[in-house]
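Anyone able to model this chain together with 4'-deoxy-4'-aminopyridoxal-5'-phosphate?
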Amino acid sequence: MQMRDGFIGTIGQTPLIELRAASKATGCRILGKAEFLNPGGSVKDRAAWAIVKDAEEKGLLKPGGAIVEGTAGNTGIGLALVGCARGYRTVIVIPDTQSQEKKDMLRLCGAELHEVPAVPYKDPNNYVHVSRRLAEELAEKEPNGAIWANQFDNVANRQGHFETTGPEIWDQTDGQVDGFVCAVGTGGTLAGTGMALKQRSDAVRIAVADPGGSAIYGYYAHGELKAEGTSITEGIGQGRITKNLEDAPIDLAYRIPDEEALPIVFDLLEHEGLVLGGSSGINVAGAIRLARELGPGKTVVTILCDGGTRYQSKLFNPAFLRSKSLPVPGWLER
Ligand code: PMP
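re: yes, here you go
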């Protein structure tokens, strides 16, 4: 019998999909790692499980304990489902600006939601800091204790990608991988995968694809954390060097505007049948840039982070796109 062991056993070992139009346009082989096929629907299932596994191994998380995190999306969904599968309560602190779809999904996954006003990171009432304090309180109060997942600075996150995503890509390409590129939210995917690939071959080029509004491009291109522009993509963009990003082996950086990324998302759906979210568009645009830089005949891998159904009211809504002066694909209007 061929089977996987529940939710946890179904995380990872995702296929690499050859992206036809991107490969044709560059004369390279451009491959997307299908992270949207993880059981919680995104690349963040890997980080969620890696963080919980690490806490279990360190004896920090007891049966029936609580997992607390400040997150608006995929990490919360991953943590909530890992919690269901392993017998933990999940408590999520979410900025009140987040979409109803995400709040509904988190509740559906069994998470306890605490909505807080959206304020900048430097404000002590920012959702990340509120989640840390709530974890400290629950750790004292709850009979079974609580942990703070701390996805940005907990390096169990990138370790998960170092142990799974990177080696999988190496094995799936028989070591024939010339470049890897993706965007940064926490930096766990880029750093962990990049480190694993570099460990196997120093020649692999690692690149970051950064959306508007994020400071990471400026840091790796010019040594200065500086944000420019805006983006409607979600789950990516960062204003600081998180612990997960520290010492990441990054060779190249690209700033990708939404005008370049969104037509790729729409084309992948219309012509290749892949229903993806906005960050996948930033990633594939980055893969095309890296492929052009490396030259024809090379193999470039990127991440297809999550599916498009999480963004129906924005990315796939003509009225929303028009309100942001972004291009509306023809088939959405029909
Ligand atoms: N894409 C999406 C849709 C995400 O939710 C995230 C995680 N926030 C990322 C990309 C970035 O992944 P990482 O946190 O590993 O940098």
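The pocket of 4'-deoxy-4'-aminopyridoxal-5'-phosphate is lined by residues 42-44, 73-74, 183-189, 235-236, 277, 279, 305-306 (CB under 6 Å).
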